[in-house]
Amino acid sequence: MKKYNVGILGATGAVGREMMNILEERNFPINELRLLASPRSVGKKITFKGEEITVKLAEASAFDGLDIVLGAASNAVAKELAPHIVKAGAVFVDNSSAFRMIDDVPLVIPEINAEDVKKNKGIISNPNCSTIITLVAVNAINQLSKIKGMVASTYQATSGAGAEGPVELRAQESALVNGGDIVSNVFQYQIAENVIPHIGGFTDNGFTAEEMKMQNEGRKILHLPELNVTCTCVRVPVVRSHSISVTVLTEDSLTVEQVREAVANAKGCKLYDDGEKKEYPMPLVTSGQDIVYVGRIRKDLVFDNAITLWCCGDQVRKGAATNAIQIAEELIK
After folding, report:
1. Which of these is catalytic: 242, 269, 311, 312?
2. Which of 95, 153, 209, 272 has the greatest count of CB atoms below 10 A from its CB?
3. Given this model, what pLDDT does residue 163 score?
4. Is 129 designated active site?
């Protein structure tokens, strides 16, 4: 089997480290793994498959000889270094939002539009974490009948804000128990014992940038340019795994039984929907793995031709690191 030289840009962050774990789990055919990060992380040693790898500086000359670069850095870093990655002859699979809405950059969820990988010109974008989890859950419905619109609410874990998110949650929980001061640096307000209906900057239409990703990215991934989505994104006091409530409006009327069967057979999904047994997707059930759990499937009571469901998935893994590596696997097929 051919082996590949792989780089991880932003290797010392939460997603970068998860990428390393998943590369090892999935036995990706690696010849060289090159770990790249900012100056403050240069020289750190990280173990991969029993061997220590020294972190190198992410700079213009760092990509020579690489076949694939997995991006787990900021938009600014991705934009700065992408031209050098492409010039070096590598394909950049980028987890930032820097290139997602550029027309000639594929935006890929392998369970849905793997064939778009072939259209790349050196850059492939990884979608937003909530978009990935939601679309994996509803793609089976789109196969039954074209989706016209969605109404979604996301319940996003604190780790979606980076490694410091859960740290702040735990510190606030401890302060509440022990009578200490509540300090909020990562989130706009106290997140412990609270929910915050604000993720991303507000746009002119009253929605946040995070909320608009569900529509804009969904159109591109599902190849549905007229898809309309109303989304509300909420930060919740959970460490890991995002949950989404979504009502899906379709051209044709579908039965709950049709949808359940389609979800049960869909790639990347697990039907987890038994009210009598109290089985429904939750962060505690879905963290630490790559399957999107789907449940609470029911006929909507407001819209004709609509199904409402609840889904949940690990946003660090399937919502970020695993999806990127699945894209890399499609590249080398």
Report:
1. 242
2. 95
3. 87
4. yes
Distance of alpha carbon 166 from alpha carbon 238, whole angstroms: 8
Contact 129, 284 (CB under 8 A): no
Catalytic residue among 129, 233, 269, 311: 129
**Cross-strand pairs, 71:** 9, 94
Fold of 131-315: Dihydrodipicolinate Reductase; domain 2 (3.30.360)
What is the C-alpha separation between 239 and 242, in angstroms, rounded?
9
Buried/exposed 129-168: b ≥16 CB within 10 Å, e otherwise = bbbbbbbbbbbbbbebbebbbbbbbbbbbbbbbeeebbeb
Delimit the CATH 3.40.50.720 region(s) of the chain.
4-127+320-332
84 catalytically annotated? no
Assigned architecture for domain 4-127+320-332: 3-Layer(aba) Sandwich (3.40)
| CA 168 to each of CA 131, 185, 190, 193, 237: distance values in angstroms, whole numbers, following the listed order | 25, 8, 9, 12, 10
Distance, CA of 230 to chain centre: 19
Does the predicted model carry a pTM greater than 0.90?
yes
Q: Tell me if 49 sits within 8 A of 24, measured CB to CB.
A: yes
Every domain of the chain with CATH number 3.30.360.10 lies at: 131-315
3-state helix, strand, coil in the chain (%, to 5): 35, 25, 40
Tell me the average confidence (pLDDT) per consecutive run of 10 residues in the chain, 333 residues long.
Answer: 96 94 97 96 95 96 98 96 98 97 97 97 98 98 98 97 94 96 97 98 97 98 98 98 98 98 97 97 97 98 97 97 98 94
- Give residue 207's pLDDT: 98
3-state secondary structure of 69: strand
- The answer to whether 106 and 188 have CB atoms below 8 angstroms apart is no
Distances (CA, A) of 256 to 35, 150, 273, 303, 310: 47, 17, 11, 14, 13
| Residue that is written with structure tokens 């809405």 in the block | 101
Closest of 132, 154, 176 to residue 231, by C-alpha: 154
Nearest partner of 308 among 266, 263, 227, 245, judged by Cα: 245
